Amino acid sequence: MPPRKRLLAAAVTAAACLGAQALSNTAASAADEVVSRGVTIPAFYNPPAQLPAANGTLVRSEPLPLALSLPGLDGPLPGRATRLMYKSTDSNGKPVAVTGAYIEPSATWKSGGPRSLVALAPGTMGQGDQCAASLGLEHPLTINGRTTSVGYEDLAIYRLLTRGVAVVVTDYDGLGATDRLHTYVNRVDEGHAVLDAVRAARSVPGASVTHDSRVGLFGYSQGGGATASAAELQASYAPDVTLSGTYAGAPPADLTAVTKAIDGSELAGALGWSLNGFLQSDPSLRPIAEAHLNTAGKAALSDLSTMCVGDAIFGYGYAKSTKWTTDGRSISDIIAATPTLQQFLDHQRIGTLKPSGPVRVATGASDNLVPHAQARQLAVDWCRKGADITYQPVVLPDVGSALLNHFAPLLTDQGDAIGWLTDRLSGRPAPSTCSSLPAQP
Q: Biological process GO terms, please (predicted)?
């Protein structure tokens, strides 16, 4: 299939299966609102000048209407939602405001004890503030033709809610919140945001979860990296958050490998989001980046910083970073030849710490966007550290599209993944596949 047709097929499949989300019309004063790519971000997302001291403290909250309907279902997700802003700490040790949403299920929790809670870490949404998952929960339509977040997490949220599990969704650092750029795939920022979302959920007015509630983490792709990181960081950063189980689907654990894979793919725009995020986290890298980026590269990074995933697929699908650099080398080649850049990526590596609690790592055997081999290596690394790991390769045919090879396992494995996670939330012990993992690549 020609590249342009594959691009169209990927976009149509994503739209049909996942659905585009839209922004709310939350009341706000015009002075406090921010406009991102023609979409108005409500004043709720504008952080205050001062944040609380304790991580996970609620900064503000308000009711969040759930107007989303799923194919074959009438009405919204089965629960009552609250929009959140809470305090977290970024990878530089600085306070940061993170937004998200908590959803109290309509269904009863039937497995004994207080209602369980799952922190859901969204997959790639983009880098514009309008792409935030909490904004996308409110309406199923774009506004004035402008793309906002895509709702491929909504089926997982629905499945959890129908089992009586409360769900808290994080928007991550700088996605939604208007004071900084989203630090895409920064493992510390994302891991902290996930763990602090759990803390914030416990103090949401009207929430039935408590400090005694069992806690699970669920994430795929970017979200899989975030939950994997959170499981590693829990012991040192959030000892008050005991993890009963973590699902890390298609985790980008090795960004050196992922950077090579996404370059020239349908999701090449994610390379720009990564670079923008790295420069937000470590401004000292900016002179190095600017020395290697040509006018087209700098323009692409600026443009992508306000885009959601749908816009990026159409605007930058199959883009090659060799067109963005002054000497025609790829971004990966420049990183490999620049110790400071390589060290930054090495610091983002997930798998160097033992995760807390059992973890299910799932990855598509045909996934060449977030490569299968590096995700499997994460499971191997964790097993060698004595972790309780269930490794699940998802074997599907290669359909000739990196994007579809990556996203298909999200849907085909999701029921089993949620079943595994709810078993952990019900107190059932997790099986481990570590004894058989190293033998088969």
A: lipid catabolic process
- For residue 243, report the phi and psi dihedrals to the nearest 5 degrees: -95, 125
Phi and psi, residue 420, nearest 5° = -60, -45
Place of tokens 């710490």: 353
Strand partners, 139: 22
Q: Which residues contact 147 (CB under 8 A, 6 or more apart)?
A: 20, 307, 308, 309, 310, 311
In angstroms, the CA 359 to CA 437 distance is 14
Distance (Å, whole) CA 338 – CA 342: 6
Domains assigned to the chain? 3-254+349-439 (3.40.50.1820), 266-347 (no CATH)
Which amino acid would we find at residue 427?
G
CB atoms within 10 A of CB 235: 14
Q: Measured in Å, how far apart are the chain's first and last C-alpha atoms? A: 29
Closest Cα to residue 168, out of 70, 84, 239?
A: 84
Q: Write down the pTM of the prediction.
A: 0.91
Residue bearing tokens 């928007």: 171
Q: What's the pLDDT tens digit per position in 346-364?
A: 999 999 999 999 999 999 9
